[in-house]
Design brief:
The chain is 20% helix and 31% strand. With 235 residues, it is of the alpha/beta class. The chain is globular.
Length: 235
């Protein structure tokens, strides 16, 4: 493929996940990461950071934000340079900067947008704001040559990931399909064990892992984990 594709990670702050949500005795500080995809057709932004969700949610998660404009500037671009937005899903910590990009198409699964508009799901003003332009998808969609949206439901019914085919291998921007790279690794290993005919019982894995495997990803990156999944080297 002659198209040159680049992926750059953006640090948009962090929040404190309380112990009631970590499954353990202690809270956990998690990053909020977005990704800037460069393509000969323009710039795509995958997620836009944390929005203001009101006093109760602010107190619950204690976010520390890095402004989207600042993060983009550090990458050498501006808000005006962004041609397309893809949110993995529409919770407040993934679409917080969308209102700064009024007029820019936001590609979202139809099921996700419907859930977001039914109340009690996210911050309404981060979804339907003046100048909001949504392009609703039903399943996979090629954004540009070498850039494909793939549904990865689980965290939400309309969650989606982005597959970017770079010359040196495919990168998957998995958003919150899994919270951690290690959990994605566990799914990959469970799938491989099943394919190898390992005797049950075996752990279940998300069915979309089969689809992502078809792209032979070299790296998988996440929204709340700085770690990167890479395949193990064969002996």
């Amino acid at each position: 493929m002659g198209t040159k594709l680049t992926v750059r990670r953006l640090d948009l702050g962090s929040f404190v996940r309380p112990s009631s949500e970590t499954g353990g005795p202690a809270p956990r500080v998690e990053p909020v990461l977005a990704y800037l995809v460069g393509h000969e057709r323009g710039l795509l932004l995958f997620d836009t950071g944390m929005g203001d969700a009101g006093p109760e949610t602010e107190a619950h998660y204690r976010p520390r934000r890095r402004a989207l404009r600042e993060a983009l500037s550090a990458a050498g671009v501006s808000l005006a340079d962004i041609g397309v937005v893809v949110n993995c899903h529409l919770h407040f910590d993934h679409c917080g900067g969308n209102p700064l990009l009024a007029g820019v198409p936001v590609l979202v699964q139809r099921a996700e947008l419907s859930a977001a508009r039914h109340g009690g799901y996210t911050v309404d003003g981060l979804v339907d704001f003046p100048g909001a332009v949504h392009e609703e998808l039903d399943g996979e969609s090629e954004v540009w040559p070498g850039v494909r949206i793939v549904p990865t439901p689980g965290h939400t019914a309309g969650h989606q990931s982005l597959v970017v085919r770079q010359p040196d291998g495919t990168v998957v921007l998995a958003g919150q399909a899994h919270d951690f790279a290690s959990r994605f690794a566990s799914d990959v290993l469970a799938r491989q064990a099943a394919l190898d005919g390992v005797e049950p019982p075996l752990p279940a894995y998300r069915p979309w892992v089969d689809r992502l495997a078809e792209f032979d990803p070299r790296r998988v990156l996440f929204a709340h984990d700085c770690s990167v999944w890479e395949p193990a080297l064969s002996p």
